[in-house]
Amino acid sequence: MARTSLRTQRDLTSLGDHVRAWRKIHGLTAQLVADRAGITRTTLRAIETGTGTVSLENTFAVLRVLGMADAVVGASDPLTTEMGRFHAERALPQRVRVPS
C-alpha cells in the first residue's frame, strides 16, 4: 500500500475538522450522524480525524447527512473554474492515452 503524503494527510485532517464542525453546528451527536449515514461511530471518527482508509462512499454518506455532499461535488466541477471552462470550449476526448 502506498504511503500517504504529508500534503494529503493535511487535507484529510482539514476535511475531517470541517466535517466535525458542521456536525456540531447542526447539533448532531456522532452516534446520530453515524446511524443516519449507515456507518459505525469508529468510521465517523476516522473521517473526522483524517485517519484510516475510509471509503469515499462512507465519506459521502456523512457529507450527505450534513448537507454538504452537493457543495463538495459542485466544487469539483471543472466548469466552475476559468481553466475548466476554457478547456471545455474544445471538444474533450473520450479517452486520454499516453503518447507512444
SS strand fraction: under 5%
- Rg to the nearest angstrom? 17 Å
The best one-word shape is: elongated
Distance between the termini: 29 Å
Structural class: mainly alpha
What portion of residues is helical?
55-70%
Largest sheet: none
Q: How many DSSP E strands?
A: 0
Mean pLDDT: 91
Number of helices: 6
User: Uncertain runs with pLDDT below 50, 5 residues or more?
Assistant: none
Pfam families: HTH_3 (PF01381)
Protein name: Helix-turn-helix transcriptional regulator
InterPro entries: Cro/C1-type_HTH (IPR001387), Lambda_DNA-bd_dom_sf (IPR010982)
Domain HTH cro/C1-type: 19-72
Summarize the structure.
This protein is mostly helical and 100 residues long. Helices cover 61% and strands 0% of the residues.
SSE blueprint and pairings:
Layout: H1 6-25, H2 30-37, H3 41-49, H4 56-65, H5 69-75, H6 82-88
Helix pairs in contact: 1-3, 2-3, 2-4
Description:
This protein has 100 residues and is mainly α. It contains six helices and no strands. α2 crosses α4. The radius of gyration is 17 Å and the shape is elongated. The protein starts with 5 loop residues before the first helix and ends in a 12-residue tail after the last helix.
